[in-house]
Design a protein that fits this description.
Strand content: 15-25%
CATH topology of the largest domain: Rossmann fold
Oligomer: single chain
Largest sheet: 7 strands, mixed
């Protein structure tokens, strides 16, 4: 209409109008996000990281602190019994049999290690079992009340057993106390193995600007021994399952927090964090609560998942910038009659091709995990 009022021909005005309609078609804008997301999640799936949705990408960009569960995440989670210390009047065989039978009702890695150590000599009859979150287990074994607990959940110990607990913690081991009724009858010490790639992963998390925090229900000295070996400065030890959520909430006062875990005990903390990352070797509850699920228990894969999420988000933003910039620049040119419908169509097609091609560049992402 403007061109007609200016005295131009109907053909010229119609040509300009058609060119504007073609340029204004939001094809590139519609492709900007889904193509990058499709390629990014596909690359993640191939390398073993399942990204739940587009909101995960933004959260991966903004996290500043990453809380790491110790057992099964930083360490292998294949705990093994390294020492058995019975009290006077109790044999190692009896101590292991009672502890192993009591723990046979639990799926905790610590419980599996004790059961594995006790099984060769035979287990007793488990008549009752109760899991006490953050403390241990209670059971009835061959008619006897038995408990296997963390040392700090027992109270005072006889001096010989207290010294055993102290020495085990000093070596970075995890001691548990076995009780028959209310009487402590011995200590079983367990040790875990740090994953070969954990120290490397911690270094790369720091390079991404993240502050790692080791979060564990283990004792302070055992946790500190692991943290020192992998390069983590901040440790939160003796944290019970229900306390992990509180720690995540506290860390969120510094900024957004990612949480990496693998167990049922981690599910609530994964859900409470801004970005939950579940190890593939973990429980279904942990995976359900997470935004990213790792199909391998390699912490470097968590680093790759965060890197990929951030790169995918950058690609989406580049696509959106191009789509908007193309429209902002080309619509005035079309309105001024400087673009024919043929050129406008070619420009629109080029814009869409650019967005798709830019998204496909994500296929060149190289994970550091193997």
């Amino acid at each position: 209409a403007g061109w007609l009022l200016a005295g131009e021909t109907v053909l010229f005005a119609a040509t300009a109008a058609v060119a504007v309609l073609i340029i204004a078609c939001p094809c590139a804008l519609g492709l900007a996000t889904p193509t990058a997301l499709l390629v990014g999640t596909g690359v993640g799936a191939r390398m073993g990281a399942i990204i739940a949705g587009p909101d995960v990408l933004e959260r991966a960009r903004t996290v500043r602190t990453i809380a790491l569960d110790k057992t099964g995440t930083v360490t292998r989670g294949d705990l093994r019994v390294v020492a058995v210390h019975p009290a006077d009047g109790v044999t190692e065989a009896d101590l292991l049999r009672l502890a192993g039978t009591a723990e046979s009702g639990s799926e905790h890695p610590l419980a599996r290690a004790i059961v594995a150590a006790a099984s060769p000599a035979g287990l007793g009859e488990l008549q009752h079992f109760e899991n006490v979150p953050g403390e241990g287990v209670r059971a009835t074994v061959d008619g006897v009340e038995v408990a296997v607990r963390r040392p700090d959940a027992v109270g005072s110990l006889p001096q010989p057993l207290a010294s055993v607990v102290d020495n085990a913690q000093g070596r970075g081991e995890t001691p548990v106390v076995v009780l028959r009724g209310a009487e402590p009858i011995g200590v079983v010490a367990l040790a875990d193995t740090i994953k070969e790639t954990s120290a490397q992963a911690i270094g790369r998390l720091k390079a991404l600007g993240l502050s790692p925090v080791l979060l564990t229900g283990d004792n302070e000295r055992a946790a500190r021994a692991v943290a020192d070996r992998v390069g983590i400065d901040e440790v939160r030890a003796n944290v019970r399952p229900e306390g992990k959520v509180a720690v995540v909430r506290e860390l969120q006062s510094r900024g957004q927090v990612a949480m990496v875990g693998d167990g049922v005990n981690d599910a609530a903390a994964l859900a409470a964090s801004d970005l939950g990352i579940a190890m593939g070797s973990g429980t279904d509850a942990a995976k359900e609560a997470a935004g990213i699920t790792l199909m391998r228990g390699d912490l470097v894969l968590a680093v790759d998942a965060i890197r990929l999420s951030r790169r995918t988000l950058r690609t989406i933003r580049t696509n959106l910038f191009w789509a908007f910039a193309y429209n902002v620049a080309a619509i005035p040119l079309a309105a001024l009659g400087m673009l024919t419908p043929m050129i406008a169509g070619a420009a629109m097609a080029f814009s869409s091709v650019f967005v798709v091609a830019n998204s496909l560049l994500l296929r060149g992402f190289r994970p550091e995990s193997r």
